[in-house]
Design a protein that fits this description.
The chain is mostly helical. It has four helices and three strands, in the order βααββαα. It has a three-stranded antiparallel sheet with strand order 1-3-2.
Length: about 80
């Protein structure tokens, strides 16, 4: 009997552009366009070429009605 787990899959806290786009139901190119226009929350930068989006923040942003980035940042600061 093997007691080690080989397929541990905890829920990710931050996701790549591909996974963030899938979560939002859009393509990766559209995600980058929305990011450039300031329409989605800021990604967390793990390096110069490794943006990651927080899953909890994307879900909260969707629940709030997808406000633009400036409105979202002000709303987060007020909480």
């Amino acid at each position: 009997m093997n007691t080690t787990q080989t397929s541990i899959n905890p829920e990710k806290l931050a996701v790549t552009a591909k996974d963030a786009a899938a979560l939002l139901g859009i393509c990766r190119a559209q995600l980058y366009k929305l990011d450039a226009l300031g329409k989605i929350p800021l990604p967390v930068r793990l390096g110069t070429r490794a943006p990651r989006w927080r899953v909890d923040e994307l879900r909260a942003w969707l629940a709030a009605g997808c406000p633009d980035r400036a409105t979202w940042q002000c709303g987060k600061a007020a909480q």
